[in-house]
Amino acid sequence: MLRWIDASPEMEEVPGPDNKPGGGMGYDYLDELVSGVFQFEEPGAEDVRREAEMVFYQPTPVRHIFNLMGLTALDETDVLVDLGSGLGHVPLLVSACTGAGGIGIELEARYAQRARECAQRLNLNKVTFLEEDARVADLSIGTVFYLYTPFVGSILSDVLKRLRREAATRRIRVCTYGPCTSVVAEERWLEAAAAPETDRIALFCSRD
């Protein structure tokens, strides 16, 4: 799997299931491979509770997770915090491939529990999944924060305010995917590493 991190720039230029460079929002064989290794099991829809501004869960396509690793050059000194982590695809794969620490913040207890079980099966002891609200969770040890549009409106606004307060204490990086990218791009305390696009990973760095 480590080869795909190094190959992520090339993968971004190859048409994927949506016939777009990098594959757009669709899934491909990498998702089947990782799902088979991690044995993800999603709770039934009737078991999941969401507030009005919380978005229906979808996992980040694996090729985009590899691209995130390539863009951020994560290593064992980093801690990635996934805000709205679902079944934990991003922290689990990042930790397995880079040695970085991972924290998944997930309000839905059943998703957080399934992610913990997966981390235990794979002996990934640098990954933690917390059943918490991203608006009040402890973000103090994170160096990289990831959002795949887990919420919109006032919830997203409140979380971005939390991240801005974290950035006042140290430099952080924020990675986004999906519609939230355009909202995050408006934050003046962040600087985009490249022109942000909603259908691929966007990297933002806090300004000094």
TrEMBL record:
InterPro entries in the cross-refs: FAM173A/B (IPR026170), SAM-dependent_MTases_sf (IPR029063)
A molecular function (GO) term: protein-lysine N-methyltransferase activity
Keywords: Methyltransferase, S-adenosyl-L-methionine, Transferase
Region (Disordered): 1-22
Gene3D superfamilies from the UniProt entry: Vaccinia Virus protein VP39
Source organism, top-level taxon: Bacteria
EC number(s) per entry: 2.1.1.-
GO biological process, one term: methylation
Top EC category: transferase
Matching PANTHER family: METHYLTRANSFERASE DOMAIN-CONTAINING PROTEIN
Protein name as annotated: Class I SAM-dependent methyltransferase
Organism the protein comes from: Tunturiibacter gelidiferens
